Amino acid sequence: MAINHRLRILLCLLTFKTGFSAEISVVVQTGNSVQLHIQTRELPEFDDLSWKNDKSEIIVRYTSETKRVRLHSSYKDRVDFNDTTFSLTLKNMQKTDSGLYTARASGESDNNIVTYRVSVIDAVEAPVLTVNSNWLSGNFCTVNFTCRAHELMITSSYQNNRCSPEETSTSSDNHTLRLSCSCDSIICNYSNPVSWKTDTEKVNKLCTVNLST
């Protein structure tokens, strides 16, 4: 699983548009930054361009004639505004920052250019892979184990150089717990849209320990 460890942002375009406005879903990890782009090359002529949140706070207002940029007092240390591309970067995102962010151009008419639905979520904690039992019978090593993370759990067994099943997963609220096996490893992976962590056991080590006892 390849996830960008710097920003780890998931973008998912929704399927509806109204005029210039298109809603885009963004998931960002708590404490990270997120950049919101205009998403169109052709903007209508405007006098002012603003970014606002769903609390009716105007985060930034840009005046075309004077090139003046005005920031909301509560965002002054948390945003960067690009007065060329009109993109907005929000820093140190917290869960309370989740919500809608809209770019709006005002002139002879008002147009919502783009709306982002931003969700701020925590990185996952490491899962726990627990060996319930392991034994050697003839040439076969059998290992029973449980993969667990929060409310999710998978139980499986390893025998004859394979797991049954070889790969399985369970999900809840955008969190996925996945269990997979190779010929020498059991891997428990826990992930969400912004992060992932694993716990691994070497089968040969488990079987060797059992054989020596």
Automatic annotation (TrEMBL):
<dbReference type="Pfam" id="PF07686">
    <property type="entry name" value="V-set"/>
</dbReference>
<feature type="signal peptide">
    <location>
        <begin position="1"/>
        <end position="22"/>
    </location>
</feature>
<protein>
    <submittedName>
        <fullName>CD48 antigen-like</fullName>
    </submittedName>
</protein>
<keyword id="KW-0732">Signal</keyword>
<feature type="domain" description="Immunoglobulin">
    <location>
        <begin position="23"/>
        <end position="121"/>
    </location>
</feature>
<dbReference type="GO" id="GO:0016020">
    <property type="term" value="C:membrane"/>
</dbReference>
<dbReference type="InterPro" id="IPR036179">
    <property type="entry name" value="Ig-like_dom_sf"/>
</dbReference>
<keyword id="KW-0472">Membrane</keyword>
<dbReference type="InterPro" id="IPR003599">
    <property type="entry name" value="Ig_sub"/>
</dbReference>
<dbReference type="InterPro" id="IPR013783">
    <property type="entry name" value="Ig-like_fold"/>
</dbReference>
<keyword id="KW-0325">Glycoprotein</keyword>
<dbReference type="InterPro" id="IPR013106">
    <property type="entry name" value="Ig_V-set"/>
</dbReference>
<dbReference type="InterPro" id="IPR015631">
    <property type="entry name" value="CD2/SLAM_rcpt"/>
</dbReference>
